[in-house]
Amino acid sequence: MVVRTTTFGTDLWASVIGLAIALLGFWVFRSDARAAEGEPEAPKRIPVILDTDIGDDIDDTWALALALKSPELDIKLVVGDQGKTLYRAKLIAKLLEAAGRTDIPVGMGVGPQTGGGGQSAWVEGYDLKSYPGKVHEDGVQAIIDTIMKSPQPITLIAYGPLPNVAAALEREPKIAEKARFVGMHGSVRKGYGGSEKVSAEWNVRADAKACQKALSAPWDVTITPLDTCGLVHLTGEKYKKVRDSKDPLAAAVIANYRIWSEDKEAPESRSSTLFDTVAIYLGFSDELLKIEKLPIRVTDDGFTVIDPAGKMMRVATEWKDMGAFEDLLVRRLTGPTVKPPARQ
Ligand SMILES: [Ca+2]
């Protein structure tokens, strides 16, 4: 009886091992076949939510285009932040249409629905109801649901004041366990325009309480303060490549810039400061930046000070190679928009 059982066990194990070898062989064969066809395996894309005050400064529009052209990212949701919710949602939706990415849901954030800005003329007559994709009127709940239902941790890339993020943390604190935060916020050792004097940076100062809540939440935080993001511009040949691109999304960015800019000469020769594009880049890489771990405290009047009592975060304090980032920006903006990933 004992012998029979052992024999049966041995046979079973032999079968299991045999099957495992066969499956491994099939997998190796498949991989070889793929390699032989020159077809790379699809890289894993990082699921992200973008939280943006698009429609005020023009750099948010550049940032959205960079995100849509970055194959490392899988954009799950784009939400307008800080009021003017209809205007911002229209801008997002119309840009997603220009990119052919209406599979991406749009969210309306907290604050008043009314109000416009420097890009209003570009969305005049655009009916948000015509957007083929999903529009969430409660963008805060959409942020929560997207994070909580995601099988993978979400990267929340925020590049505006943070009332949506603070409201989402208030409503569902558990989002901090399932997401990491990347932001364009603050001024640590340098101020606007590379100044040696620190500034109360707009995204912090506009709603310091919300920023305190978002930056102190128990998630992994990475920021690009003015020290790095405040230095990025495109000029000369680099700018002209984007200005003259026939790509529909790049053309939409330049059309918006021409409408938005009070100085009508600038959009012909140079970009404005492209702060927010650096937050998008940090969503998938920090290779071109020097990152320091620093304890940061957000003051009530909108400064971000190094203070041992602050929240420890990763801060992009200097560029290793800003020229290479500008090249990447130009290459991506003039290159193809990323196709939607196959949704499971
Ligand atoms: Ca912004």
Textual characterization of the structure:
By secondary structure, the chain is of the alpha/beta class. The chain has helices at residues 2-36, 59-68, 85-99, 120-123, 139-149, 163-171, 202-205, 208-216, 226-229, 236-243, 248-260, 266-269, 275-282, 322-334; strands at 46-52, 73-80, 106-107, 135-136, 154-159, 179-183, 221-223, 289-298, 304-306, 311-319. It has a 10-stranded mixed beta sheet, with helices on both faces. Helix 2 packs parallel to helix 13. The protein is globular, with a radius of gyration of 23 Å. The relative contact order is 0.14. Residues 1-10 and 23-36 have low confidence and may be disordered. It binds calcium ion. Calcium ion binds at residues 52-53, 57, 60, 159-160, 276.
Give the arrangement of secondary structure elements:
Elements: H1 2-36, E1 46-52, H2 59-68, E2 73-80, H3 85-99, E3 106-107, H4 120-123, E4 135-136, H5 139-149, E5 154-159, H6 163-171, E6 179-183, H7 202-205, H8 208-216, E7 221-223, H9 226-229, H10 236-243, H11 248-260, H12 266-269, H13 275-282, E8 289-298, E9 304-306, E10 311-319, H14 322-334
Parallel strand pairs: 1-2, 1-5, 2-3, 3-4, 5-6, 6-7, 7-10
Antiparallel strand pairs: 8-9, 8-10
Bound molecules: calcium ion (CA).
SS class: alpha/beta
Span between N and C termini? 49 Å
The bound ligands are: calcium ion
Write down the CATH topology of the largest domain: Inosine-uridine Nucleoside N-ribohydrolase, Chain A
Number of distinct beta strands: 10
Q: Count structural domains.
A: 2
Number of helices: 14
Computed CA radius of gyration, to the nearest angstrom: 23 Å
CATH class of the largest domain: Alpha Beta
Beta-strand percentage? 15-25%
| Succession of helices and strands | HEHEHEHEHEHEHHEHHHHHEEEH
Strand line-up of the largest beta sheet: 4-3-2-1-5-6-7-10-8-9
Would you identify the regions where 5 or more consecutive residues have pLDDT less than 50?
Answer: 1-10, 23-36
CATH-defined superfamily of the largest domain: Ribonucleoside hydrolase-like
Largest sheet: 10 strands, mixed
Name of the CATH architecture of the largest domain: Alpha-Beta Complex
Shape: globular
Mean pLDDT: 91
Helix content: 40-55%
